[in-house]
Amino acid sequence: MGGSLLRGLSQSGKYTLIACDLDPTARENAAPFCDRTTDDLKVAAEADIVIIAVKPDLVEPIVSDLHLDPEQTLLTIAAGVATDRVEQHTDATVVRAMPNLAADTQNMAAAVTKSTVTDEIRSILDIVGEYVEIDEAQMDIATAVNGSGPAFVFYLLGAMRDAGIEGGLSPDDAEVLAAQTFKGAAETVLRSDRSIDELIDAVCSPKGTTIEGMNVLWDSTADEAVIEAVRAAERRSKELASE
């Protein structure tokens, strides 16, 4: 996730970006998208905005070693790690966000804590996609919907691609058609004033092809499976918090 943010932000040219990691391979991968790489936390601690993108159990020990001051902002993106827990280990302004991998292409969906978000963080999130400001208590479900959500979408996209292949399309053609269809449908939802149900109706003509396919979906438990996948991810986010 840190790498995705780095790649997305690098396209703007608006920031001096420094990647800090102990792993030389990670630094090598980050180098094309930043101004400098380092394995020294003291260098990272000099930044006005510090983004910490590590496994949840590493957040608190690393933040404790960063030694930030009240004029700095710390953005955390670890699942299950509450803002108040991080605040115990730093003097910086702590903002919690849950972005997703589409930051890579500046198409990210993110949720951010509205009680602590700053204009600086809003500017960063604006560059790499869309975001909503939510209560801290809603972060677990946001983690499931937009943080884990890309994997669920990839799964469904793969199913549509496979159907195309089974019907005779080449794998490449089927993947392009399925992926662009998901992309176009998502853009339509974001740009349209119509509800999702109204958009479905707009595609379905009486006795046409789409209504035949939708009848299969409406008669299935596909929606229940997706909801349960999101709920499972939400439960795991809560477990991480308690752990």
Topology:
Blueprint: H1 2-10, E1 18-20, H2 24-30, E2 36-38, H3 41-44, E3 49-52, H4 56-66, E4 73-76, H5 83-87, E5 93-98, E6 108-113, H6 119-128, E7 129-134, H7 139-147, H8 149-166, H9 171-191, H10 196-203, H11 209-219, H12 222-242
Parallel strand pairs: 1-2, 3-4, 4-5, 6-7
Antiparallel strand pairs: 5-6
- Counted by DSSP, the helix tally is 12
Given helix and strand content, the structural type is alpha/beta
Q: What does the overall shape look like? A: elongated
Q: Tell me the count of domains.
A: 2
What does this protein structure show overall?
With 243 residues, the protein is an alpha/beta fold. It has 2 domains: 2-135, NAD(P)-binding Rossmann-like Domain (Rossmann fold, 3-Layer(aba) Sandwich), CATH 3.40.50; 149-242, Orthogonal Bundle (ProC C-terminal domain-like fold). Helices cover 55% and strands 13% of the residues. The protein has 12 helices and 7 strands. Strands 3-4-5-6-7 form a 5-stranded mixed β-sheet. Helix 7 packs across helix 12 and helix 8 crosses helix 9.
Q: How would you summarize what this structure contains?
A:
Residues 136-240 form the Pyrroline-5-carboxylate reductase dimerisation domain. InterPro entries: 6-PGluconate_DH-like_C_sf (IPR008927), NAD(P)-bd_dom_sf (IPR036291), P5C_Rdtase_cat_N (IPR028939), P5CR_dimer (IPR029036), Pyrroline-COOH_reductase (IPR000304). By secondary structure, the protein is of the alpha/beta class.
